[in-house]
């Protein structure tokens, strides 16, 4: 099948991928744009996951001040290059992330940051609620309720406030595949007047 320049340009505008990558994706998907987008996303995600050894030492601080100036958030998001850090997609992500933190009030960036003492305390609370059940059932209940706890308190596990079909991890993956770099949410601070 012959791929036209117009098809390549349209796919490039839609995905932000390079011309040659768009051409390859369209060839692999027999000219089907939607399949080509999926092909590019898979390829991009594979490229980004292979970059885990790269240092994400560039980045930006995204800020959000809620109406009335009583609530403010700062979020540090890192990437590999200054070029990406100054890009519109990266800057928009950082601002959206700061707004998300203002709305959801997570306690940690990821599960890795949750202190073991907090996890043990949550397990005790869950166990006191479970009652008498077989051990394998108790284990599944504890696991399920701990996962729910992490989804409420860990930023990367939360559903994005602007689109409940996506988690913050999904957004990170999408941005990473779009810019072709490793993206890391380093930290955040949430300020509330009077607290």
Describe it:
The protein is an alpha+beta fold. The chain has 3 domains: 5-49, Helicase, Ruva Protein, domain 3 (Orthogonal Bundle); 58-109 and 154-192, Tetrahydropterin Synthase, Chain A (2-Layer Sandwich), CATH 3.30.479; 115-153. Helices cover 54% and strands 17% of the residues. The chain is built from 8 helices and 5 strands. Helix 1 (5-15) packs across helix 2, helix 3 (33-49) crosses helix 8 and helix 6 (116-130) crosses helix 7 (135-153). It starts with a helix and ends with a strand. Mean pLDDT is 85; it is low at 45-52.
Descriptors:
195 residues, alpha+beta, Helicase, Ruva Protein, domain 3, Tetrahydropterin Synthase, Chain A, 3 domains, 3-stranded antiparallel sheet, 8 helices, 5 strands, 54% helix, 17% strand, globular
């Amino acid at each position: 099948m012959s791929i036209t320049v117009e098809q390549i340009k349209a796919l490039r505008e839609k995905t932000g991928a390079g011309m040659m990558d768009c051409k390859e994706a369209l060839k692999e998907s027999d000219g089907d744009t939607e399949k080509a987008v999926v092909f590019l996303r898979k390829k991009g995600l594979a490229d980004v996951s292979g970059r885990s050894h790269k240092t994400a030492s560039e980045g930006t601080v995204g800020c959000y001040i809620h109406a009335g100036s009583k609530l403010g958030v700062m979020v540090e998001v890192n990437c590999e290059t200054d070029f990406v850090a100054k890009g519109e997609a990266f800057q928009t992500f950082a601002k959206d992330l700061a707004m998300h933190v203002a709305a959801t009030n997570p306690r940690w960036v990821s599960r890795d940051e949750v202190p073991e003492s907090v996890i043990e305390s949550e397990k005790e609370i869950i166990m006191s609620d479970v009652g008498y059940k077989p051990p394998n059932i108790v284990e599944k209940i504890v696991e399920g309720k701990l996962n729910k706890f992490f989804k409420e308190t860990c930023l990367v596990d939360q559903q994005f406030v602007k689109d409940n079909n996506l988690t913050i991890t999904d957004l990170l993956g999408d941005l990473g595949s779009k810019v072709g770099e490793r993206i890391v949410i380093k930290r955040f601070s949430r300020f509330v007047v009077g607290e």
